[in-house]
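tool_call: predict_structure(chain=1)
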Amino acid sequence: MRMAKDSTIIIQKDKSNTSVDIEDRFGIVVVEMPLIIPTEIKEVFEQNYPDEDGVDVYNSNDGVKFDKYTINIQMGIKGKISYCNSNLKNFLDYITSTDGTLFSFYSPWVCDGKAGSYFGGVSDFDYFRDDTGESFMIFNMSIVVTKPKSSVTLLSNGNLSINQL
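tool_result:
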């Protein structure tokens, strides 16, 4: 079985059957990532009648529904600044390409993934250089999760198994 590195994210575009390991393909590593547990719920329907105490709330038999949410991931690339810029551009070209907006992803760091996600943007670029002259680019990437109850796991062939609850 192929073991994914904790420092990567595996992405599979919805219009593709092939997964991409962003560390292997673009040299991009995860520096910091939160748990990807849904936390936002949709507003519960309620009616506030002026001549009654309190409010009437629609009591759904389906339970509370989760809303889409955004996760922010701190990522990094190590190498010369030209290498960092080139790899970031190639990654952005891939994630925003015409083969579909939506993708599924899996993070070995948090041992979970989500389907029905899309790229929310990148920001906060910082460049660092260590004592040896090696450069690092650190940036934040946001992913918008539209299917909060989905579950994605990594198969032994490196592709993703998607369960859209």
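agent: The mean pLDDT is 85. Proceeding to next step.
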